[in-house]
Structures are given as C-alpha cells and as structure tokens.
C-alpha cells in the first residue's frame, strides 16, 4: 500500500477490530499529547499522525475506501457521487476537524476524565470555529468569551480533623470558600469547587478551584490508609508478668491486657481503633501498638536485692 500506512501509525494489524483501533489510538494520544511533551516537535507529529489514522480507521466507510484505494482513498471519496445529486458528498462528524485529520470522540476514551481534559486543552486552539469538540473558537476562546483558568490550593488539617470530619474556610484572594470534609478524608484527596477559579472574560465561564488535602504529622500516631501505628511504653514488670495497660487512642482511652512475657518490639493489634473509612464512616481500621519495654535505670536497695534473687534463681 503506497502513501501513509495508518495501520503502522497506530501499531496495529490490518485486520484489527474497532476495539483494538480505539485502544491503540487512546494509548498513543496519551503518550504523545503536547501537554505532556511540551516543545517536543516529534511527539506533536506523532500525536497528529495518531489522530489522522484514527479518523480514517475508526470510520467503517473511510476504512473500507482506504483499504481498497490506499493513498487515493480521500480523493475518491470527494469525487465519487454519494449524495444522490451527482456531486461529491462530504459529511462532517461532530468533533472532527475537516482539514487536519484530527478525530476525537469522548466515547473513545470510556469517560476517562484526565484524558479528556488533556485533549480539551489541546483542541481549544485547533478549532475552525464551526464544530470543535468542546465549543471553542479561534485561540481557545469560547463563543461567549474566554473561559477562566483553574486554580489550585492546599489546606492542611490535623489527624484529629481527618478522624472526626471538619469544616475549613479557605481564603483565596479576596474570596472565602467553605470546605466541608467527611470523616476519614485521606492525605492527597482533591476536591473541585466549580466556578471558584479565575473568572472568565467576555462572558466566558469561570474556572474551578482544585483543593488538595494535606494531613499534618501527628506526635503519637502514624497513618497507613485506615490503620494507625503508635509506640506504647510498658514497664518491665507488666511485660514479664502480664497485666492491664492504659492505651490512648483517637477513640478515647482504652484498657488492653498484655500476656505474660510480652517482648520488646512486639506488635499488638487493637481492632477497630483506627481511622474511619472515607466512604463508610461506620467502619474503622485497626490500631497497631509497637511495644517498648522500659528498663529501670535506677533501683532502690530493695529492688536491687529482688533482682539479685531472681538472677540467682535463674542460674
């Protein structure tokens, strides 16, 4: 086949199924997208090639003509009568560009929001103003005007706030925004406040405010997903003989019974004493205690005598 090899551009066989074509296109669109390869002309060319190839191979009629006529397929498509009036019929599909071969359909990406957002920003400046995928005209400008940019912010909360849930006020410029956090909110969780970003111009819509959550380090607990870890000091006698200890948890003070002979660095689990699950706050993770046995540094004469007796008994 002379001319451009669209199958080779997408890295697929000539008998590839529509699903395989879509999958290959999606992979290349993400890999070579200009937003991820700024200033890389080769990647931009690969991105355009993938769009051109997908625009032909994803359309059964175009693919049939391409398989039959090779590089002449498009010329034949435009010169052969197809509209019943003896003239050439050229039908534009929504979200496809007529000259550059760019072909995009949100359905190709199976509702992948991150991919769609990448393509949204790229195609903002590629439209001819008549039928772009996202309703933007020249230079990324919406017909109503220029849409505002998204803004990003971070808010730091304590582990106790994450445990109980909380409400935080964000000061962004001259504006205040209230952010309500549910119990168990994890580190790195991001929230989108619609229309709270940069204002649009000329009637364009405002951008969004993206708020990321940071959880401050805690003096006692270390968090791993919904589980908590802490160090628990135990006196020597209780570790040797066993007994009850008082454990401070986020659920309040709890009593735990140690078995005789509990070793230093032992890990003990308190079920349900961890963090609440974000989507199921009635369920909790576990609390793991790392046991640290305290060895007395100073002994009274009586204590020294007792330890001496113990040593003699063991020998």
List keywords for this structure.
315 residues, alpha+beta, Helix Hairpins, HSP40/DNAj peptide-binding domain, 3 domains, four-stranded mixed β-sheet, three-stranded mixed β-sheet, 9 helices
**CATH T-level fold name of the largest domain:** Helix Hairpins
Care to count the β-strands? Answer: 11
CATH level-four homologous superfamily name of the largest domain: DnaJ domain
Q: Rough shape?
A: elongated
Count of distinct structural domains: 3
Strand percent estimate:
15-25%
**CATH level 1 name of the largest domain:** Mainly Alpha
User: What is the N-to-C succession of helices and strands?
Assistant: HHHHHHEHEEEEEEHEEEEH
Uncertain parts: 77-111, 125-140
Percent helix among the residues?
Answer: 25-40%
Give the count of helical stretches: 9
- Helix/strand/pairing category: alpha+beta
Distance between the termini: 92 Å
CATH architecture of the largest domain: Orthogonal Bundle
Main beta sheet:
4 strands, mixed
Radius of gyration: 33 Å
Question: Going across the major beta sheet, what is the strand order?
Answer: 6-7-11-10
Give the mean pLDDT: 80
Write the layout of secondary structure elements.
Blueprint: H1 6-10, H2 18-31, H3 41-57, H4 60-69, H5 73-79, H6 113-123, E1 151-157, H7 159-164, E2 166-172, E3 175-181, E4 190-193, E5 209-215, E6 222-224, E7 227-235, H8 236-241, E8 243-249, E9 252-258, E10 267-270, E11 287-294, H9 301-314
Parallel strand pairs: 1-5, 7-11
Antiparallel strand pairs: 2-3, 4-5, 6-7, 8-9, 10-11
Helix pairs in contact: 2-3, 4-5
